[in-house]
Amino acid sequence: MQTSWSPQLTSTTFKVPTPLKVIAIGDSLIYGYGDPLGGGWVERLRRQWMSSEGHILYNLGVRGDGVTQVLQRLEHEYSVRGELRNQYPDLIIISVGVNDSARLGRPNGKHFTPEEKFQNKIETILEVAQRLSNVIFVGMVPVDQAKMPLHETYLNLPKTTEVVCR
């Protein structure tokens, strides 16, 4: 199973379609929340690619989504993207997990998604995505816990994700 892919691979290892069709699916990190000027890293990449490479990048990030919501949307979102009928994306970029780590309501609130359920959902997301296309999984990033308190198992989720991605 292939869990990562780079569009910069040489033509001897992989022929890069022109233009490359990519979907980025996940939570607010894909959506671009917190970057009102640039729209987030996906939007910045989309603009750069559109002006120089001609690649197409669909930003399918939804604020507040967790692993359950991304899994529910993945296959449908993949199947309806593309400029022409029967052309599917060449790559899926996935980033999800921060919302699953949050404590609900307050710093000592209930964990949003239990660790075992999180691991099972990530495994399923990756299985489905790999069946559809090449996949890049972007791991979780540091969070300001004053603004978004996290459950102590948040520290385990990046390790859990790493294990699943192997």
SSE topology:
Elements (H helix, E strand, L loop, with lengths): L20 E6 L1 H4 L8 H13 L3 E6 L5 H13 L11 E5 L2 H4 L13 H18 L1 E4 L19 H9 L1
Parallel strand pairs: 1-2, 1-3, 3-4
Helix pairs in contact: 3-5, 5-6
Structure description:
It is a single chain. This protein is α/β, with parallel strands linked by helices and 166 residues long. The protein has one domain (21-165): 3-Layer(aba) Sandwich (Rossmann fold). It is built from six helices and four strands. It has helices at residues 28-31, 40-52, 67-79, 98-101, 115-132, 157-165, and strands at 21-26, 56-61, 91-95, 134-137. It has a four-stranded parallel beta sheet with strand order 2-1-3-4, sandwiched between helices. Helix 5 (115-132) runs parallel beside helix 6 (157-165). The model is unreliable at 1-12 (pLDDT under 50).
Strand arrangement in the largest pleated sheet: 2-1-3-4
How many whole angstroms does the radius of gyration measure?
A: 16 Å
Number of strands: 4
| CATH homologous superfamily classification | SGNH hydrolase
- The percent of residues in helical segments reads 25-40%
Shape: globular
> Helix count, per DSSP?
6
Main β sheet profile: 4 strands, parallel
Q: In percent terms, what proportion of residues is strand?
A: 5-15%
The whole-number mean of residue pLDDT values reads 79
User: What's the N-to-C terminus distance?
Assistant: 9 Å
What characteristics describe this protein?
166 residues, disordered N terminus, Rossmann fold, alpha/beta, four-stranded parallel sheet, 6 helices
Q: TL;DR of this structure?
A:
It contains 6 helices and 4 strands, in the order E-H-H-E-H-E-H-H-E-H. Helix content is 37%, strand content 13%. The N terminus is likely disordered.
